[in-house]
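Illustration 12: Glutathione S-transferase II.
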Amino acid sequence: MARPTGLIASKGIELLTWSTPNGYKASIMLEELKEAYGLQYTYQGINIGQGIQKEAWFTAINPNGRIPAIVDHDHGDLAVFEGNAILSYLSRRYDTGRLFSFSPDDDEYTRAESWIGWQHGGLGPMQGQANHFVRAAKEKIAYGMQRYVGETERLYGVLDARLEDRDYVVGPGRGKYSIADIALLGWVNVVHGTTIAIDQFPSVKAWLARCWERPAVQKGFQIPSALASSALTPQAGEAAEQAKELKQLVDEAKKQYGYTYSSP
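Figure caption equivalent — predicted structure in token form:
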């Protein structure tokens, strides 16, 4: 894929994204809309390791210099950034049959907003920090590791309790697959990166497997490039050995600071 230097489409939705938990929100939703309504879209891979998201042409679309972002060429070249804002926009404008969303006058709309806000303000930031302190930080800081892994673990306990007697996060009865689920999928799919085993949360694991059965979810996780791993796939080889070593570090950090799992 050539290095992007600007927008390439003149009609439809153009997605600017990378293979990250937030990036998958947009690609999965667009694949769902494509399958359900025939909505076509163009995408470009924005390699955040190369700093493309900081270039002037990109920050003209998203001043914050982050992915994902979309440009709706059929609606005055409207730019929308932040994954959850993209989910909201696409569902309002293109999910005309409310297949993945709810009518604003439906209480489930508000419930979906609540869980999407919970992801945006809680699970995403905490899991992101956990992953940083465990894997990316050059210095392994015990307090940071146990603090953020512990809070991520607590939040997964909240989600597991929510899904204990439900198939999906919101919706009547056992729930309906919706943007509330899509907002979470990319994050839950890489929870193993924090050393937290998804087997600890059986209801979350069952929900993730259920969502993975959807063709649009599978396709969305391949954009802009093939997914490297999933929480549902046991790690092997060097990856498994590294995960074991990192978990030992986290467990030692938890012990050092007297961490005890509790949720909520």
